[in-house]
Amino acid sequence: MKKKWAALILTLVLAMTVVLAGCSSKKEPKEALEASAVNAMKMTSYEMKSKVTIKDLQVTSASADNAAASQVMSMLKNAELTIDGVYQNDPQQTEMTLGINLKGDMSMSFNIPMVMTQDKLYVKVPSIPMLPLPEDVVGKFLVLDMKELAEQQGTSFNPDMMNPEKTKKLAGEIMNTLFTEYDGKKYFKDVAVKDANLPDGVDAKQVVQFYVTNDNVKEAADILVNKALPKILDIISKEEYREMLGVNQEDIDDMKKDLNSTDSKDEISKGLNDLKNYLKVNQFEVNTAINKDNFPAYQDAVMNVEMNDPETKDNMKLSLQATSQYSKINEKQTFSIGIPKEADVITMEQLQEKMGATAY
């Protein structure tokens, strides 16, 4: 009797240990990121907020007009690109607003709302400074019928090209390949949730960082080119992805053959060895916040690099930050723009006519 009770208690303790481990313990950083990437393929609807900010951009060249380049760099410094959107799989519909905010001496800001269905793309014509557009065009939605455009170019339209589900599936396979090739101890680590500077509304159970430093950038590039890229080409070789991307097997085979050629390998090897002479990685980090449902709810990427070509004397410094936040995952979505009504739509032919009339 005592043995039976002891066995029962031991069984209960083991069962509770397994349950608690599954509920509360954190996975190894690389394993957690792999699991969240796979889980992301199950996202059938969501709200999204993304932003890219160019913190610094400096370009100098011995052969170019540096004064003109400096003017352009001034416009782009602290420039922001934002995308706020909503996506649902069934019925397939995506709407987003692209925001462009340029600063400096020639500052300007404008938004471009867009709506995408299974076969059409609607783009709202914005009012852009220095680009005069007819008043009766601004505010209209330019409709692009993908099937008609394909026929005009002598090709057939493949709906899969605008299918976010297949795009996510392809991205998932590629990400899984990349994760497999990079060592978990060298390139991945946990970041304490309290130290991750997560925005309000992001409830993360774990934050994982993928990072590349100046010490391992050569190895990271070598892994990407010589190990990951051939496998990624194998993924793209699958019929469903070839058709979706509109590429043929012959082109993929040529790329693989070129990668495997002796001349190409020698050139790649020389380029990787020379990397230390012209590339300096001050910071390259991608933090991914994983929520309780194992979805990647937030990502923050920071890149700060310098490139200096000793032969041409061309130099560049680039510092940028990119963030993406996902919310209301797999919930019912609300579309604020909706499918534009016929009265608010203009075709490409009508736009060209309007622009032609304006020119005269």
TrEMBL record:
Please give the PROSITE patterns that the UniProt record associates with this protein: PROKAR_LIPOPROTEIN
Superkingdom assignment: Bacteria
Query: From which organism does this entry originate?
Result: Paenibacillus rhizosphaerae
Keyword list, A-Z: Signal
Q: Where is the signal peptide?
A: 1-21
Name of protein: Lipoprotein
Keyword Signal present in the record's keywords: the answer is yes
